[in-house]
């Protein structure tokens, strides 16, 4: 028969293990896991026209379609935006998306993905640069993407997207403009339409109409 001291020790160990499991689940649920997927093609982009509208913080917002955009990608990082600014209300989440060689090697190579202030950064050390082989493919096979949900249902689905997910998104690359009568303030947010540009204004502004997990 176990002693009282042994039972207490077992209970403490069980509590520690349960707490560790809960913390692991919480981290994975909120942050996702690092993943790699091979065979993902670059996004499909075709000229498109159309307009959507929104009213945010007194701004009359016009969302003008530039290209249809169909993405089958690995989520390599995410960043939520929760302030009451126009851009955060319009686009509550940024997704760093990858395909091609970047998605294929995302577990073998640590790209050190980071996102903040609507920007995404990454880097490779010298050994990983040699292993990856092509800087141009590193640039063209990933994109920081500002997600504008088309409706509340899409907004809810986007909220569930985590690092490591394999997702399929459809919608439009858009240019956004806004005007507020009260103080004549303006708002402008234009999408990149190239996968090879870098730096400020190189992110995709993506009006999403469909979300699927592959």
Estimated helix fraction:
25-40%
Number of strands: 10
Separation of termini? 53 Å
Mean pLDDT: 90
Cα radius of gyration in angstroms:
21 Å
Total DSSP helices: 6
Largest beta sheet: strand ordering: 3-4-7-10-8
Order of helices and strands: HEEEHEHEEHHEHEEE
Uncertain residue ranges: 16-27
Give the CA-based shape.
elongated
Largest beta-sheet characterization: 5 strands, mixed, barrel
**Percent in strands:** 35-45%
Q: Helix/strand-derived class?
A: alpha+beta
Report on the structure:
With 214 residues, this protein is an alpha+beta fold. The chain has helices at 4-31, 86-90, 100-104, 126-132, 135-140, 152-159; strands at 44-47, 51-56, 59-80, 93-98, 114-116, 119-121, 142-149, 166-180, 185-190, 204-213. It has a 5-stranded mixed β-barrel. A two-stranded antiparallel sheet has the order 5-6. It starts with a helix and ends with a strand.
Topology, element by element:
Blueprint: H1 4-31, E1 44-47, E2 51-56, E3 59-80, H2 86-90, E4 93-98, H3 100-104, E5 114-116, E6 119-121, H4 126-132, H5 135-140, E7 142-149, H6 152-159, E8 166-180, E9 185-190, E10 204-213
């Amino acid at each position: 028969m176990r002693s009282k001291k042994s039972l207490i020790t077992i209970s403490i160990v069980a509590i520690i293990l349960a707490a560790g499991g809960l913390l692991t689940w919480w981290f994975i649920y909120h942050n996702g896991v690092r993943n790699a997927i091979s065979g993902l093609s670059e996004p499909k982009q075709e000229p498109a026209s159309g307009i959507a509208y929104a009213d945010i913080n007194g701004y009359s917002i016009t969302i003008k379609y530039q290209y249809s955009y169909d993405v089958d990608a690995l989520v390599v990082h995410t960043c939520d935006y929760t302030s009451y600014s126009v851009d955060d209300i319009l686009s509550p989440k940024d997704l760093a998306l990858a395909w091609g060689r970047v998605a294929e090697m995302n577990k073998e190579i640590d790209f050190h993905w980071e996102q903040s202030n609507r920007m995404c950064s990454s880097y490779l050390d010298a050994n990983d640069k040699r292993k990856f082989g092509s800087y141009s493919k590193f640039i063209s096979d990933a994109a920081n993407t500002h997600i504008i949900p088309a409706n509340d249902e899409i907004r809810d689905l986007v909220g569930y997207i985590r690092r490591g997910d394999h997702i399929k998104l459809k919608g439009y690359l858009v240019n956004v403009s806004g005007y507020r009568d009260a103080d004549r303030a303006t708002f402008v947010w234009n999408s990149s339409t190239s996968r090879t540009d870098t730096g400020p204004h190189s992110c995709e502004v993506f009006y999403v109409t469909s979300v699927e997990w592959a």
